[in-house]
Predict the structure.
Amino acid sequence: MLTIQDLHAGIEGKQILKGINLTIQPGEVHAIMGPNGSGKSTLASVLAGREDYEVTGGSVRFLGKDLLELSPEDRAREGLFLAFQYPVEIPGLSTTNFIKTAVNEKRKYFGQAPLDAVAFLRLMKEKMALVNIDQSLLSRPLNEGFSGGEKKRNEIFQMAMLEPRLAILDETDSGLDIDAIRIVANGVNKLRSQDNAVLLVTHYQRLLDYIVPDFVHVLYNGRIVKSGPKELALELEERGYDFIKSEFPAGQPA
Amino acid sequence: MDTLATIQKQFDLLQQAQPVSSLHAIREQAYQAFTQMGIPTSRHEEWKYTRISGVLNREYHVAPAGMTASLDLASFRQHALPGFEEASRLVFVNGLYAPELSVIRSQGLSIQPLEDAAAGAQKDLVARHLGHSRHYLQDGINALSTALLQGAVFVQVGKGCQLDHPLHVYHITDNRAGAVLAQPRSLFYVAERSYLRVMEHFITLGEPGSFTNQVLEMVVCEGARVEHYKIQLEGPSSNLVSTTHFHQTGKSFVHTVTLTLGEGLVRNNLNLVMDAEGCEAHLYGLYFQRGEGHVDNHTVVDNARPNCFSNELYKGVLDGHATGVFNGKIFVRQDAQKTNAYQSNKNILLSETASVNTKPQLEIFADDVKCSHGCTVGRLDEEGLFYLRSRGISQETAKSLLLHAFAVDILEQVQDADLRAFIDQKIEERLEIELI
């Protein structure tokens, strides 16, 4: 589904990703962990197409297409979803209109007729129930004045509405208390299937108690220096990132 | 014949035709003022960024007083807003009141030619209030409106009358038989404890290139409430100076919204004179300009008495080579203690070639007041754009949604549901989005 080969990228002339290799198959959950500044969020941003970042080498194929050639909106329409670490507040834009526009632009991309208001509201109700989000939240302007937990829940709701093939969750647990993490994780778990995949980007192991990964990768200094089963996350939790730093001082893979 | 010669000829005709009219003296006085001040150039402080002299540098027709309107009711309806079947209507064609196109549908509302009011029972009211705007607009353009005063109306809302339906005012400039200088003029008297909702529309027919210099003066009495909307949707190359002058003579309430989506040259003057204790006023404006459009909003809030409240918010989006001006003055007189006056102007520039000049001006002579002002000029939020695009929304649509979001707090100030629906549709068409 996703094949990243030797990906190099940076921002404002500074190299951050220095040769990432990663393959994700449908149905899998991958977790990318690493200390602060290792390039986790850069990887998520580059995959989603954030234009501040410059790709300087390597390739990314997503569902048979050259992902890096696609605009951010086309990546989303093809089935990539980024749950933001800091979802943007947009006063004046109703959440409902935002999601309706997104859903219908995706439909248009695939030559489908737009959903009318009735059909759209029906779909919304169904997905609201699935991820346990309240109507009152969606009646408000997009993320405006939302708590951290509400913003993340709204991200998962958008994911439910857009039904992506690959969801990248960028530090979705940051700033959330344990109840909020559980709610968000439940939403993600309900959306998992054999056809879609999840890439979790996280600093802490605790989210992985609720969304259990098939693979854990350790990102350090712009490279994946270690990969393993879910137990690797526990080891990291126990030993901290320092052992990675001492084992791979220059970020060289094993 | 150049414009100045046309103006002089028209003035002479008017004065000869109506030598005994009570409006004779006020025209004379204004004409003297006009000849002294002339058409404002960019050397005039209030016209620094709005070049109007060139616009008047051509040949115009001025419709003579008493001329029948050049369009009938059926063709008027083609240009009027759809719906609003129960609304009253005041129509000007080429600056002249067109009674045959106008209709009163609410009790307590009266419309009559200004000449009649000035000669009849409202004589004192007219004498006291007509031309009050000249104290705040000292330029040849305002003087010109009064110098060629003709075809004007006196509108009155009776004491205690709560008008159940809005009054639509249409300013139609019909260029089909040549470029027109049109000067629609009205004096509104909103009596004690009454309520009026009024909407102004501007329509140009035929070739572009007209010049419309419109003045509406409104006296708002004790306990009265006025809601006022100015809707400017005209296409490129119409030239418009539109003046709205509120004079709150008693504790009263004014809510006014100016929406400029057209692309011509538009100068709006909005004056609010709070001449009684406890007045309240809300002033809102929204302008979208592109191409070569130019929009200038000059506002004055004059706090002459204590305990008044005013809140002002103007927002604008400029694209292409469009230019914008915002100039907001707030005066707080020495007497006007406990004034609360707030002002804000926010702009988004969508192109490298669009520009805006924004200038807040506070002149405060009282010491116990709360006043604030602020202005911003910026670009669309990149982070917001990316967020929308990352959900599959195209860059163009994402921009439109963000612009709509920017405008929505002004749109929400349109309290007439039918007008709001109409405006929403216009905005959505303009931005090419469809919202629910």
Q: What stands out?
A: The interface with chain B takes residues 48-51, 71-73, 75-77, 81-82, 84, 87-88, 90-94, 96-102, 105-106, 109, 117, 120, 141, 158, 162 of chain A (CB under 8 Å).
